[in-house]
Amino acid sequence: MSIKRSALSVGVIGAAFLAVAASTAGTASAHGTMTNPVSRVAACYAEGPETPKSQVCKDLVAMSGTQPLYDWNEVNIANANGNHQALIPDGKLCSANRDKYKALDMPRTDWPATPVHAGSFDFKFRVTAAHVGTQTVYITKPGYDPTKPLKWSDLDPTPVAQVPVTRNPTDGYYNYTGTLPQRTGRQLLYMVWQRSDSPEAFYSCSDVDFGQPAAAGQAVSALSAQAPAAPSEQQIAADAPKSTVAHHGHGGDQNEPAGAVVPTSSAAVGSSPTGPLLLSGAAAISVGWAGMVLRRRRIEAVRRDF
Which pLDDT band, with edges at 50, 70 and 90, does 130 fall under? Predict the structure, then answer.
């Protein structure tokens, strides 16, 4: 084989290697939100970003526009790496300290709230890009005041649920069971999803209502809240083109194209931590072969001179 043909072969092989490596690096990122109990962002999105029904959701749109609702599955910090309290100050837990989602931090008593009671509870988390990691759910302490900004110290340090999650959600959802303690009135459930294959983490706030305590000699009072609706699969699919969320890398990068969500009949394959290694390895191989070819050409040129 001639030197030119060898060089061409090396170039083709190197390019192919790089193309394969690039295609396997930085694929789907983790995205989603809690839908039982319905998170604040999911509840307002379900009402319709252009025509919200409740006053609090109308105020959210007035403050931040409709895009945070179309991007309901991206309340995240790209490089959290478990340092949640260091990165998210008191009063900004629901937004993950992101200005885009600041309206989620509004301290109010009219956020749509899911009726609950003490005991076993079935959590449901809508996944739009699945990944391995751990979801931890905390509940506010007795005496929590929803009219004040949520602080880390408002959360009971003992989780009501903590489960490992995988790249294989069931029909597009993570489903798991936790245990809710005794509470009364409005409380809040705070979910932290820390990926184990990336420093990225996701967060959600879900308002719940345990009802009012029974008066002496009376039966336990009925729960005062009506369950807010979760986004339908039809709504999620129809609004996907309006999302700016990229389902690869860390997400939220305006330079990355928005991607399709995980359908409820399948799960996304997550990014591989070996992607950068593949790229660097492919580059090293290509450079090494190219160097060998150029060296052979120089040696043959010298021999011809003699």
Answer: confident
